[in-house]
Amino acid sequence: MPQIERSIYIEGDPQAVYTIGKNLEEYPQFMPDVESVKVVEKSGRQAVSEWITNVEGTPIIWKEEDIFLDEKLEIHYKLIEGDLEKFEGEWRFVKEKTGTKVILRVDYDFGMPSLTELIGPTLELKVRENCDMMLEAMKKKIEKKSESAAV
Fold first, then answer.
1. Sheet holding 3-10, edge to edge
2. Cβ–Cβ < 8 Å for 53, 34
3. What is the C-alpha separation between 124 and 43, in angstroms, rounded?
4. Is 58 helix (H, G, I), strand (E, B) or coil?
């Protein structure tokens, strides 16, 4: 089962960046491949969210459990049901220099060994590109917000 970890440096306070990361329902506003996110249940530091993404014209739909560890500035997520066999990982927001290193880890399994055998490297590239897109979109949103606040 492939595991991908990507990161990006964002000029911004870790707490502020984490707060934007926690607001899952806003992701479609600044992440092009995310069509919708709906939090359907929330209790304490846990939530259940329903996701619809579009990767290369193919919708991928799932429901996940999200755990928000405010004290560590981490978000852990795990598939409950959906189009994938396994989909879990974490977002970490780490103070670094004058900003934040955002680390996104994804552990996934499409659940189709024959398909994975045939196009596994292509699938891995798409997941990697999607992670990078999400991180870049978050960076753009936060740094743009910082620029407009400074003006």
1. 3-10, 99-109, 86-96, 74-82, 58-69, 46-55, 34-43
2. yes
3. 33
4. strand
CATH fold, domain 3-150, is Alpha-D-Glucose-1,6-Bisphosphate; Chain A, domain 4 (3.30.530)
CA distance 5 to 128: 8
pLDDT digits (tens, 9 = 90+) for 115-143: 556 556 667 777 888 889 999 999 998 88
pLDDT at residue 150 is higher than 60: no
Burial of 59: CB neighbours in 10 Å, binned 0-12, 13-18, 19+: exposed
Residue with tokens 């991908």: 4
pLDDT in tens, 50-108: 999 887 777 888 999 999 999 999 999 999 998 888 899 999 999 998 899 999 999 98
CA distance 49 to 37: 7
Report domain extents, the chain: 3-150
Helix (H) or strand (E) holding 108: strand 99-109
Q: How far apart are CA 20 and CA 66, in angstroms?
A: 15
In DSSP terms, 75 is beta-bridged to 68, 91
